[in-house]
Amino acid sequence: MRVWNGELLDGYDVVVAGSGAIGLTAALTAAAAGKSVCVLEKSQYLGGTSAISGGTLWIAANGPMLRGGGTDSREDALRYLKALTKGRHPEELLEAVVDTGPDMIEFVAEHGLKFNSVLNYPDYRQDLAGSSKGGRSLDPQLFDSTALGELRAAVRPDPRLPFTMEEYEAWGAFTRFPWDELKARKERGLTSRGLAVVSSLVAALARLGVTLVTEAPFASLLREGERVTGVRVGDLEVSARDGVVLATGGFEWNDDMLKQFIGAPFIARCSPPHNTGDGIRAGAAIGATLRNMHEAWWAPYAQLPHEKMDGAPNATLLRFERQGPGSIIVDRQGNRFVNESQNYNDLTRAMHAYEPRDHAPAHLPAWVIVDADYVRRYGLFDFRLDQPLPEWLVSGDSAAELAERLEMPADALRATLDRFNRFAATGEDLDYSRGASAYDRYWGDSTRGLPNPALAPLSEYPLFAFAAIPGGFGTCGGLATDADARVLDWNNQVIDGLYAVGNTSAHPASGGYPGAGATLGPGMTMAYRAGKSIASS
After folding, report:
1. Does 523 have pLDDT greater than 70?
2. Where are the beta strands (DSSP E) in 334-387?
3. How are beta strands 11-17 and 37-40 bridged, if at all?
4. How far apart are CA 83 and CA 469, in angstroms?
5. How far apart are CA 435 and CA 424, in angstroms?
6. Is the link from the previous residue into 178 a cis peptide, with omega within 30 of 0?
7. CB neighbour class for 62 (10 Å; exposed up to 12, middle 13-18, buried from 19)
8. Calpha distance 351→177 (Å, rounded)
């Protein structure tokens, strides 16, 4: 156990278990109101999954959006969220997210965490009423981590170079990145994306005198009568006079809980391997009710063999690799089965389709296929045409040769490629409507003069293929809460002194995925409401 920014006492007004951006927001809100606060982190680093995330926040009618010329309304945002979440949440929870999100953004900005609105980044489900053409997704500004001093070593590092999500989306492919400039940024101590969010919040907490503790795994809750009064960390008990906030993440690294609650393949993960359901199990042990435990933030990944985090395999999210023009995804029979350009959550749900006759997933294994022209233009992760073929990549000098190596019917793959190439020539995907929505086209390549920026033919050999693996950012069902993030028992009554936020709670966006930043935006909003509730208790 290592204590940063002071010493570990046996009592505080507020104890926060978990140090991702959501838990840190709850801590900051309470500390800014004058409460003494301690943050306990299970791993050796502060930041959780947030530190290695895109750091984007989805907030409707946010200040940066409106000040930048965008438009939005409470009514549209609520209509959109209700359609996405399909009745899985009380309406008061969705109203709390929409109504309080803009206030939360202004609050964290006052403490040094600032965002830009990406006005041309559409919501993920453009087919639903209330969706926005852009502006609800907020991109964190670069942050100079040298301001942290010795606390810089306490924050989980991101091995990627510092670029904003807006820059990533503008450049599209890694072959277009200004790598020398990005290396110079890193050398100066600049951070971006989730690391900038976490670093900004940690700096603000340090200024307010919050105690930060790493290598302090939360074990259980302390109670006096029906009230939660603190937490147990190993053999140590830390009391909380006003409230305990559980922000320990989901349970994607707990195989037993995945088998019990998640009825779909959850193979690849990008989070640090510490989200094992600790807070959810502790809340359930004292009578908290659970909600939406079958839900997760689904995403397709590539599992590159050299990638690890804290000793565990770590996967890479598929973005441009499957959304860029000139790529397709096929199943084990060599057939397309999905719009490759759609948002990662809905795409991965399509990978979950089950084939009763084979007692197996119908579309797995799934393969991303590109041609030589694609690799020349965009690269494929760190692979380029003039390099030796890496072990995770399969190639073929013809469709038949690639099909043989992927163990799928050659005639089916050839027919799939021919049909897709005809769609690319006309700009209309008659099978899965790829490129029909503003979101699909946003991730295409508008510089090539294609009939549809999301569609290009695969016609230059060799072809290349790698496995697309279903997984997720994390699970997002958990402890049921009210609109102030207070945990509810099985009788729908508040458990005094206990709050849950983020993926430890039944996340208010679980069941859908409104847009980039849907995990952090609503989660940090609920954390802000939790901090305000504790401050007024």
Report:
1. yes
2. 354-355, 360-361, 366-371
3. parallel
4. 28
5. 10
6. no
7. buried
8. 31
Q: Is the pLDDT of residue 166 over 90?
A: no
Q: Please tell me whether residue 182 adopts helix, strand or coil conformation.
A: helix
User: Measuring CA to CA, which residue among 146, 288, 202, 253 is closest to residue 475?
Assistant: 253
From first CA to last CA, the distance across the chain in angstroms is 30
What is the token pair recorded at 365?
A: 């294994």
Tell me the residue type at 106. Answer: E
SS (H, E, C) 434-456: CCCCHHHHHCCCCCCCCCCCCCC
Q: Which tokens go with 379?
A: 């690269």
Q: How many CB atoms lie within 10 A of CB 109?
A: 15
In angstroms, the CA 59 to CA 50 distance is 17
Tell me the C-alpha distance between 409 and 220, whole Å: 53
Q: Tell me the one-letter amino acid at 38.
A: C
Rounded to 10 deg, the angle between the 193-207 and 21-32 helix axes is: 30
223 pLDDT above the threshold of 80: yes
- How many Cβ atoms from other residues are within 10 Å of residue 189's Cβ? 15
Count the neighbouring beta carbons within 10 Å of the beta carbon of residue 159: 8
Q: Which residue has the tokens 């050839």?
A: 414
Residue 261, φ and ψ in degrees, nearest 5: -115, -30
* Placement of tokens 């995990």 in the chain: 519
Query: Does the pLDDT value for residue 359 go beyond 70?
Result: no
Neighbouring residues of 237: CB distance < 8 A, sequence distance ≥ 6: 10, 222, 230, 231
Q: List, in order, residues 6 or more apart from 184 with CB less than 8 Å away.
A: none
Q: pLDDT tens digits for 175-199?
A: 899 999 999 999 999 999 999 999 9
Token output for 440: 């699909």
The answer to whether the beta carbons of residues 422 and 439 sit under 8 Å apart is no
The residues that bridge with 313 in the sheet, in sequence order, are: 308
Q: Specify the pLDDT at position 171.
A: 87
Nearest to 393 by CA among 415, 412, 374: 374
How far lies 195's CA from each of 115, 148, 192, in Å?
13, 12, 6
Give the predicted TM-score (pTM) of the model. 0.95
Question: Which residue is associated with the tokens 């301690």?
Answer: 38
Spatial separation of the C-alpha atoms in residues 156 and 43, rounded to whole Å: 9
Query: Which of the four pLDDT bands, split at 50, 70 and 90, describes residue 537?
Result: confident
Indicate the residue type of 505: S
Q: Would you give the distance in Å from CA 326 to the centre of its chain?
A: 26
